[in-house]
Every structure is written in structure tokens, then in C-alpha cells.
Records
---
Amino acid sequence: MRVMGVDPGLTRCGLSVVDSGPGRKVVPVAVTVVRTPLESDLALRLMAVADAAEAWMERHQPEAVAIERVFAQHNVSTAMGTAQAGGVIAVAAARRGIKVVFHTPSEVKAAVTGNGSADKAQVTAMVTRILGLDAPPKPADAADALALAICHSWRAPLIDRMAAAQAQAEEVKRRYEARLAQQRKVVRP
């Protein structure tokens, strides 16, 4: 499976692409960081992020886009910009029919390091090791984007199995309720 990992941000937005294979094999394809100038208008910055992400989707043809879910940050304006950048990328992927999945930072850290509270240095070290890189990806946004892609590559099979099990359970429930409704009709005079 080919996964595009996104560490969203307005000033720096990490984009990565990995290919995953059997087991936990993950191979890096590409990684970059999109930068937008602070002095530019918000709409223009969001457009620049969206344009870069769309170009990556076109070039690399991912089957899924894994975006970091923003849930809390100390600086509200930073959180807003991060969420907006993730949003425009999610829309760009959805328009192309690419599956979009959001992962929390703790999910990513747990998947990559085994510790949901790992620091950036630990995440970067494990990304470097998992992908067999000669040097740690820099800046941290690049490493985080790769970590998101790795996380989704490893979690996707479980997520898919859980969704299939849920759909199967709902179908069994629907059939059971239909059978009960039919039996009630038979019992009534």
C-alpha cells in the first residue's frame, strides 16, 4: 500500500510517501517540507499548502493519506493554522477519491516507538531505524510526516479488519431484527 503522511502546518507542512509490504516492511519513497511565509495572507498560505499536497498526490498516487489530528495546542492560532492546513489537504485527497485517515500524535508515537508519550527525538530515531535511513530526516516535520505514513501503514490492516467486523455485526443485527419482526407478524392474530 502506498501512504502519504502529512504533518500539517502553515509555516512548515511535512509531506511524505512510503510503500508498505508484507508484515511491517515500509520503504520510503519521498519526503519534503512545504514552507509558507508568515507575512503572506492566510488564504494564500493555505492555497500554497493545498497546491503542494495536490502535486504530491498527482505525482505519487497514494492509496491513503494519513494526517495528524490536531486536538490541542498551547497556542490557539497555531492550532487553527494546523487544523486548516490539514483540512485543505483532506479536501484535496477526498476530491481525488483517496482515503483520508486522521491519527492522533499519541497513536503515531505508540505505533512507531511503542510509547505514546515519546518525544520528537525518539520518534525521529525510530523513523530513521525503521526506514533504514543513513541520516535522520530533517526538519522534525519531515520525520513526523514519515512517522504518520508508517503508523498508517501498520494500523491500516487492523482498521480495515475492525471496519469489516463492524459491518458484519451490523448485518447480523439487521437480519436478526428482520426475523424478529417477521415472527411478531406471525404471532399476532
Note: Residues 2-164 form a domain with the Nucleotidyltransferase; domain 5 fold (CATH 3.30.420.10).
---
Amino acid sequence: MNWQDVAQALFGADHAIRQNGLFLHGTGQLDGQPITVLGTTGHAPIGVQLALQQARVVLDTIAQQPGRPILLLIDTQGQQLRRRDELLGINRAMAHLGMAIDLARRQGHRVLGLVYDQALSGGFITSGLIADACYALPEAEIRVMRIPAMARVTKLPEAMLEQLAQANPVFAPGVDNYVAMGGVRSLWRADAAGALAPTLRAALADTPVRDVRAADGAARGGRRLAADVIAQVLQAP
């Protein structure tokens, strides 16, 4: 689904979202309430410029519209793999974006992520995974690493990783596996009229402000040990 269709499903004609290159920014109206919208399109690689553009919108919202909800529309192939961005400090720019989103949450802004197309690697980690909660459309694609790349990094045979992926969501790409692990809170499905506004409305009302991903992963069987390990660390002297 392209971003225009997503915006229509979320807000109808009541939005002022604009595309500037691969960067999306603007506002939408839900039940008369303005929502800051930002994100990317075209499977955007997140480089220094895109990271700073998104962070600027978040910081401007904090300064100028206290408490306004923020919606991140996510479609990215991950970080920009280019010498120029490495020399300019892409790691610091992406960290700045993540810290801006975290600051918004701490200042009382409800921040939601929606993967509407593709979410890969660092471009996803520093956006949707730092929001209060991340949601996805059923047709979205989410992964950190393809199994062939995972095999090269871990030095394990692809056949072994393919077998592990059948039973363990941690090894498998796909939006359903991220739901099972708790990284994606739920899938947003349009209603009979094709609208996503009801799911956005429910998420703004019901999304917890504390991080419950590990607990969700344990309850769903996708991450069986993370919640217990976190609890033990918190209890350690």
C-alpha cells in the first residue's frame, strides 16, 4: 500500500501530509484532534539527512504542540550504506532521531509507529521500535536480516537457520513473527469501508506508555525468556 492510500484510510481527506523526496511530514485530523505525521516512503534508506529531517519534526512538535500525538509512517530498507553518510556520522544522526522520539514520549506525547510497507534494520530500530508501540499492516514486510546474511554473520549453515526459523520467530523474518515476539503490538486491518481510523483511535486510547514488548513476547510464545531475564536483572542487588 502506498502512503497516499494509508493516509486516506487513516484520515480520509482530512490531512495535510506532504512528500518531500523520500520524506513524509504533515498533520492528520482524527475526531478533531491534530496528529503530527512523519516518516518515509519508497523503501527509503535512512541517511543523515532523512534522520535529521524526522528528528526536526519531532522536536518542533515537542516545542510548539505540547502533548500532540505523533504517528510514524515506516517504509525503509534500513540505514544508508554510503561513505558520505558514514563520514558525516550516520550513527550519531540516527541516535539523535531515536533520542528525539524518546524525549517526545517522556514529555507526554503518545508516539505510535505504523509499518505500512517495509521495515528493515537500523532504519526501523531508531523509529518504530522506539515508539510507545509499533503496529503494522498485514501485508508489510519486517526483518532485520535475511537468512543468507544471518548465515554469513553467525557462520551457521543456512539449512540449520531455515529449520530454526520454522519453530522460533527470532530466526524468521515476517510481520507475524514480529507480532509473536512482541516487537509489533498488533496488525491493523481496515474495516469494511476500508478505513484504518478505528484502529488508530483504539491505539491512541489503549497503547501502554511503558515497554511491554518482552511480556507480550512471553505471552505469545515468541520470546520465552526475555521477560524473565529482565525481571532478574531488575531484582539484582
Note: The chain has a mean pLDDT of 91.
---
Amino acid sequence: MPPKKKPKKTKKTTKKIQERIAAGDNDLEAKYRRGVLDIAILQDHIALQCESVKMVQSDRIDLRRRMRDMEQKLEHERQDYRDVNSDFSRQYKTMQIELTNKVKRLETEVNELNEELALCQEVLRREKRERQQMEQEKDATIADLRHKLDNMEIDYEKILHDTLDSLTCQLSVARQGLEDKSPTLHQNYKGLLSELGQNALEF
């Protein structure tokens, strides 16, 4: 394509162009100032943003460090929890085994004691029966002895009465005999005393 021909400049056009250039210079200066101001504002904004970014990065680093510390602490706590849980589980199993053994031992002791109690109760029942039997036999023996004693008392009383009656009769007969023989005996004794030279009235 052939180059376009430039239009011819007239005085009017040149003046307008000069006015436009002057106005453009004023606009350009204003734009320049505005641009410098905008740049300064942008630089301040960028500086603030950089400061904010630095603070954010510092906070992020600090947060990461704290997060690592918290993770380590959490891991330690988890390990402690696992250790404590393991220890508790071991203690629980040990206590459960000990308790189970103790329960078995106590059940064995209870069974043995129940057997001993049953034997003791049987012995006690047997001894009670024997004691009741002995008491019954003793009561029967006592009753029999009392009966015999009562019979013996009656017999002895009868014998005593019979004996006393017999003695009374014999004494009565002897007395009668002595009374009958008494004068003769006195005479005989007096005679004997006289022969011996004794006075019978002295005796």
C-alpha cells in the first residue's frame, strides 16, 4: 500500500495545534503530578503491603513453629497416653488375674467351709441325738432308781417295824422273865455277898 499523504497544515490548524500542545502540556504536567502522586501512593501501599506480607510471613513462621511445638506436644501426650493406657491395661489385667485367682481361692475356701459346716452340723445332730438318748436313758435310770429306792424305803420301813415289834416282844418277854427271876436272883446275890463278907445294902 502506498503511504498516505499528510494533509496540508494551515495557519488555523497550526494555532489549534499549538493551543492543543499548550493545553496538552498542562494536562501532561497535571497527569505527571498525578502519576507521581499515584506512584508515591502506590509505593506507600506497596510498602504497607510488604510490611503486611512480612508480618504475615513472620506470623506464619511463628504459627508453623507453634504448630510444630503443638504437634510435638500432642505426640508426646499421645505417647504418654499410650504409655499410661498400656500401663493401666497391664495393671488391669494383673488385677483381673489376681482378682480371678482370689475369687477361685475364696470359692474353694467357701466350698471347704461349707463341707466342714455340713460335717459339723451332722456331728452336732448326732451328738444331740446321743445326748437326748443319754438324757432319756439317764431319766429312765433315775426314775427306775427312784422307784427302787421308794420300794427299798417301804421294805426297810416294814423290816424296821417288824424288827422293832419283834424286839419289843422279846424285851417284854425278857423283862417278864427277869421280873419273875428277880427275887431269886437277889437272894442268891445277897447270899454270895454275905459269904464273901460284904454288905448287900452297900451296893
Note: The helical segments are 11-195.
